[in-house]
Structures are given as structure tokens and as C-alpha cells.
Design brief:
Layout (H helix, E strand, L loop, with lengths): L1 H11 L27 H8 L10 H24 L13 H11 L4 H20 L5 H33 L8 H10 L18
Length: about 200
Amino acid sequence: MKVLRRRVSDSTASPENDQVSPGTDKSGKPAGKGKPTPKRSEVERARRQPYTPPPTDRKAAAAQQRGRRRAEQNRRTEAMRRGEEWALPAKDRGSVRALARDYVDSRRFIVSEYILFGVFALIFIIFAFGSTKHSALVLYVEIGIVGVIAIESLIYGAAATRLARRRLPGESTRGLIWYVAKRSLRLRAARIPPTRVKRGASI
């Protein structure tokens, strides 16, 4: 009976079962695409941009280097004008300085708002009456401007320092009064980093 069953099973095997499927080779492994697989180094080389050798002329190389530095400086300047942290100088970085800038930009300063009028008045006095004849008046005007700058710097610098210590405990506030004074002296449109808040905003 075993011999009969073996003959029946052998007779059922047809040539169609012995054929290899189109997607596999004789060993049963999937067939390739007909071309060798590229090496990883070749793929990486194809992704890279073509290498441009540096110019052999010294003047051309120096001009190329200056162009690159100029482009990098322009990119950094634009980023600084947008207030991006990575492009800011070391003196402007940090959450304390950012808070102080917002505090200054939200206030009105006599010096920054009306400094031009004081300068024009001083120039008018010098040219209209003479610097030697009214030297005492010119000196008093100069002392008055310096006094206003000092008073505003101390008042707003101390207020910004208290605000930073309350909002950001543990952060250093060293030199913050001088930082506030320098920023307050600049016109609002010329301040860098640029202003982020409006006048009168609550900080």
C-alpha cells in the first residue's frame, strides 16, 4: 500500500510545479533589477553639490573670501534686526536683558523723545548769542541735559532691576542700569535689537 501511495503522489507532480516563478531565481531568492546596487559612497557623492575648487589667483581668492564674509555679516545683521537670539551680541543675550529691553521700549523717556530739541536749542544759543558771550547759559543747558539723563537712567534702571529680580529670581542683574541707560538714549526707531512692544504696554 505504501508503494502504491508513493507512485500516486509521484504521478501527481507535473512539470508546471517545477517551473520557477518569474520573481525568483533557481535558488528561490528574489531576482534583482538587472543592474548592480550602487555603493553608499556613490549615492552620497551624487547627493552633494559639485565641488568648486578655490581660485588659484591670490586676488580672486581674497575677493571670494571677502564676499563670503560680507554675505555672512549681512545674514547676521538681518537676523539681529529680527531679534534672533543666536545673532545678538553677548551683551544683549539672556532673558534679563530681553525683559529690560521690553521695559525700556514700553516707557517714554524725556531724553530719547526730546533730545533732538535740546540739541537744536543748544546749537541755536551758540550761534545766535555766541559761545563766549553766553558761555554760562550754554554750560547750564549742557548740565541740565546730563542731569536729566542721569536721573532717568537711575529711576528706570532701578525699576527694571527690581522687575527682573521679581520675574527672574536667581538671574544676574549686573550692569542692568547702564544697559537701560544706553538703550534709553537711542531713538526708538534706531534701537537694536528692535522694539517688540508698544509704548504704554504693560510689562
